Amino acid sequence: xxxxxxxxxxxxxxxxxxxxxxxxxxxxxxxxxxxxxxxxxxxxxxxxxxxxxxxxxxxxxxxxxxxxxxxxxxxxxxxxxxxxxxxxxxxxxxxxxxxxxxxxxxxxxxxxxxxxxxxxxxxxxxxxxxxxxxxxxxxxxxxxxxxxxxxxxxxxxxxxxxxxxxxxxxxxxxxxxxxxxxxxxxxxxxxxxxxxxxxxxxxxxxxxxxxxxxxxxxxxxxxxxxxxxxxxxxxxxxxxxxxxxxxxxxxxxxxxxxxxxxxxxxxxxxxxxxxxxxxxxxxxxxxxxxxxxxxxxxxxxxxxxxxxxxxxxxxxxxxxxxxxxxxxxxxxxxxxxxxxxxxxxxxxxxxxxxxxxxxxxxxxxxxxxxxxxxxxxxxxxxxxxxxxxxxx
Length: 392
Description:
Elements: H1 35-50, E1 55-62, H2 67-73, E2 89-96, H3 104-116, H4 118-129, H5 134-145, H6 148-159, H7 163-174, H8 179-185, H9 194-209, E3 221-228, H10 238-254, E4 259-267, H11 273-280, H12 282-287, E5 290-293, H13 299-310, H14 332-340, H15 347-363, H16 376-391
Parallel strand pairs: 1-4, 1-5, 2-3, 3-4
């Protein structure tokens, strides 16, 4: 083994539990520590599957606090509360604020349709209108879309089978159509305004929820749109981000039932609630039904977090040898020292600190010199090096 190379098996781990970037596959995401936070999410989801009313949930906390992790974790169906026969099933759609767009409402519109995929969007609309006559479907679509032309486009997209017209309809929703193509489709105008784009998104989400006018839970899907990194709105001008947040408000108002909107918002410093209101706008903030705070962990909570992380079956599937603490490769006192040395105690910062200590220990052959553990003496050695480096 090369000096400094980490051999996780040597410290009785199957891999790196201290990743900074969360996995892309929700099936691989685990939850450790932070039991109260997890319980809060479970409460939100239990309300979601047992009632019809729409929710707006603001997830608020420091960078690295676990908001993106939560959005990944709950995308896995087995991590959601069980649905009773009379309850709603949950469908989660994750999306980010498009930072590289000069037109954020257009970028958001395209991003969401791309996330679903236009083939899936067509299937969603087809499934929603299939149990209705044309007149009934157009009436229901018109109600949510607020536009006869958009309702007609939805109906055609869900029922038209000719490949040429399907190609024209895809272009209509994504890029716009020429006058000639609009005439072929029998649609009077393109989707040109921000209001139209958010009407379309609301219509797609309503079709996914279901067009049945009843509030019968078993007849509808609970759709959760989970938007990460809302703080990126700060990269846009006020007129740009207001168009986007007004569009989100419009979606919420058009979907009064069976819809949950999660908004992840990171704070650079505590007490920035006014900045959140500035970005989201009073209209959105007034509609928020729940706020979930992601606080920094207390020292004992941080130790619990690391303990559960290194002992999770995904990373340690065999019992430790006798005499080793549950926090291995850390002595518990040493782990407490590492945590107390942190400026912030977020999961990300704890992971960075622990990974750094393990990297140093392997570089120094700490696990090959008879000690075999990161103890308080070695933590003090790491701290001395850091101080000396900063002074130089």
